[in-house]
Inverse folding.
């Protein structure tokens, strides 16, 4: 007999504004406890140093977490030129220094331009990326250096917001990038382009897919909602299960087509999209899940809500 999952059934998306000093999983577990939720997951880790947008999926929303994992991300970051650390951020130990006073803002902009568009990036040793089943950061802490292959990423924007020159210069930058981009690695690459060591001093995620800081709530706000003693006030902070799917074309099914789709069968949708993924609703407009248009024009289920 399957073991019954502890916690209440909570379904929806929470856009958390993660605070500095905690892991993404730590933030997730605190939110999950506050909701007394049976099931929850996050959609792309933030470093402990980083703050900002961390979408959390509860219950049925976890079925669609991949759409947020695959989405573009936006960041605001302070990058220090002239100092390198072993973790490539301010939490690490200084491993290199070099005078940066000769570098001006124009040189920084030029270097940023070379790192915009399709580039290849080597993941940092201090990352959650697994090699042979073990996160790289654990091997880094053990003093190991593992060979990592460069991976393609896309930097849509890498913009200089402010520049403070000096022996160790500081850059304020805005970045919009594809999934899998490490801002710490981007900072190190920027330093390399300027012939300087570099690291990330601060990092704030401002966007994950369609969600920004205006959608986000803090753990303190969740705790305040819990203090009211009402689950309704807490659940009111959740977005709908399909909130991350608004970019997909929507189709509505008849009662008969809904029946067959839920049986796992592809269905005909008159005048429906001719390709790609779609968001599916029943005749009453209630969200059913996502499907994919087949070569013959029918729509096959990919992820459906539990009935």
């Amino acid at each position: 007999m399957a073991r019954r999952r502890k916690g209440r059934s909570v379904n929806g998306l929470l856009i958390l504004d993660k605070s500095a000093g905690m892991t993404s999983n730590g933030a997730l577990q605190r939110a999950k406890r506050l909701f007394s939720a049976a099931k929850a997951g996050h959609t792309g880790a933030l470093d402990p140093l980083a703050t900002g947008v961390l979408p959390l999926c509860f219950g049925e929303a976890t079925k669609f977490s991949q759409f947020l994992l695959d989405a573009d991300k936006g960041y605001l970051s302070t990058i220090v030129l002239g100092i390198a650390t072993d973790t490539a951020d301010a939490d690490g130990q200084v491993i290199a220094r070099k005078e940066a006073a000769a570098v001006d803002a124009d040189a920084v902009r030029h270097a940023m331009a070379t790192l915009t568009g399709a580039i290849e990036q080597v993941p940092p040793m201090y990352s959650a990326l697994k090699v042979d089943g073990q996160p790289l950061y654990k091997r880094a802490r053990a003093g190991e250096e593992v060979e990592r292959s460069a991976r393609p990423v896309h930097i849509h924007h890498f913009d200089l917001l402010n520049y403070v020159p000096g022996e160790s210069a500081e850059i304020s930058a805005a970045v919009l990038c594809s999934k899998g981009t490490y801002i710490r690695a981007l900072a190190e690459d920027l330093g390399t382009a300027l012939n300087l060591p570099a690291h990330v001093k601060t990092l704030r995620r401002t966007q994950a897919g369609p969600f920004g800081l205006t959608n986000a709530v803090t753990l303190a706000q969740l705790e305040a909602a819990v203090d009211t003693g009402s689950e309704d006030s807490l659940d009111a902070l959740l977005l709908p299960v399909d909130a991350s799917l608004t970019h997909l074309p929507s189709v509505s099914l008849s009662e008969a087509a809904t029946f067959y789709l839920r049986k796992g069968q592809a269905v005909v949708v008159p005048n429906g999209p001719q390709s790609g993924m779609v968001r599916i609703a029943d005749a009453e407009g209630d969200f059913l899940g996502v499907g994919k248009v087949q070569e013959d024009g029918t729509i096959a289920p990919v992820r459906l809500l539990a009935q």
The first strand starts at residue 12 and ends at 18.
